[in-house]
Amino acid sequence: MRDLPAPRPSQRPESPDNAGKLLRHKAIALHDDDNVVTLLSDGHSGEEVTASQGSGEIRIILLDDVPFGHKAALIDIPAGHAILKYGLPIGQASQAISKGQWVHVHNCSTHRLGRFQKEHGIRA
């Protein structure tokens, strides 16, 4: 078995101080323009969730149970408005979505292919 090279400084695990900061957040907003957060573990209706966003943090109260990896609304999103993740539109609200509500196929439609991809490129 061959020894693996030591990781470069940019590949080293987070320091314990940074790791603790990341672990205390239950969700993350991936871009400052996002109107949803992604849950890093299962969330439950009525639970206050702290999410990291850039160098700060935000808090929302979940209105629904939200499974790990799914999204919750960071703000009220009117019907017909874009769902923003990574700072890009990933879909459109098919009905009004309240802050803290689970964002999924029951209240949004996806635009993975088509108009949004043509407007924003392959990243959309």
Question: Quick summary of this structure?
Answer:
With 124 residues, the protein is mainly beta. The protein is 11% helix and 30% strand.
Task: Kindly describe this structure.
This protein has 124 residues and is mainly beta. It has a single domain (14-120), classed as Archaeosine Trna-guanine Transglycosylase, Chain: A, domain 4 (Roll), CATH 2.30.130.110. Helices cover 11% and strands 30% of the residues. The protein has 2 helices and 9 strands; from the N terminus they run αβββββββββα. It has helices at residues 16-23, 115-120, and strands at residues 27-29, 36-39, 48-53, 56-61, 71-73, 82-85, 88-93, 102-103, 108-110. A 6-stranded mixed β-sheet has the order 4-3-1-2-5-8, with no helix packed on it. The longest helix is centred in the N-terminal third of the chain and has 8 residues, at 16-23.
Name a few traits of the molecule.
124 residues; mainly beta; Archaeosine Trna-guanine Transglycosylase, Chain: A, domain 4; 6-stranded mixed sheet; 2 helices; 30% strand; globular
Helix-strand sequence: HEEEEEEEEEH
Tell me the number of strands: 9
* CATH fold category name: Archaeosine Trna-guanine Transglycosylase, Chain: A, domain 4
Uncertain stretches of 5 or more adjacent residues: 10-20
Please write the CATH class name: Mainly Beta
Strand order of the largest sheet: 4-3-1-2-5-8
* Helix share bin: 10-25%
Q: Report the C-alpha radius of gyration, rounded.
A: 17 Å
Number of domains: 1
> Structural class, from helix and strand content?
mainly beta
Strand coverage percent: 25-35%
Global outline: globular
- The CATH architecture: Roll
Q: What is the rounded distance between the termini?
A: 42 Å
Could you describe the largest sheet, including whether it forms a barrel? 6 strands, mixed
Determine the number of helices (DSSP H or I, runs of at least 4 residues): 2
> On the 0-100 scale, what is the average pLDDT?
81
